Predict the structure.
Amino acid sequence: MNIVTLTADGSNTLYNETIGEHYHSKHGALQESKHVFIEAGLKFTAAHQAEISVLEVGFGTGLNFILSFEHCEANNINLHYTSIEAFPLSSELIEQTAYSAYVPEVIWSGFITNYNNALKAPQKLTPHCTLEIRHTTLAEYQNDQKFDIIYYDAFSVQHQPEMWSDEIIAHACSFLKPGGTFVTYAITGKLKRAVKACGFTIEKLPGAPGKREMLRAIKAEG
């Protein structure tokens, strides 16, 4: 069961009783998503691009998506967003997060009305935004497409160690374009070595509140 839980910045998250972990940082769901995935990820990667493709590992509540959608709409960036989610939440539960308060109504309604269909096939939410949520595991995911950025937002290694093995990290990284960005809230010596072994340059960045550091890595060109 997933339970709606308040975090320190006033935004909600969900607590997954089966996994034993929150979907976002208890120090602040909204500020973590903005810090890790929007500021260090999307804005860094899309700074000089008119079009960007995102592969997200772990769609969860959709918070990373709606913030990405909002930024790209405001900046006339075409967003092609693909997410992998083995255990999709119901739209009713997503609505209980009250994340509609953090984006314009047109962004929220575009998302929530198309969510269930996006689990079946890509949906064009606006002329600038396409959303596809693949109902599968990362291990089983296959796609000939290469992406500009990966948001790696799986549960932590303590609760979901299979999502942080060298093999699964290499599999995820194989979907990035040369010069693409891999970004995640986590940083461990093992993770750094796994990403570096895939031909990435490692960056340690200040973490979101409650976490000292996070990882951003850039895939080698060519």
About this structure: The chain has a mean pLDDT of 96.
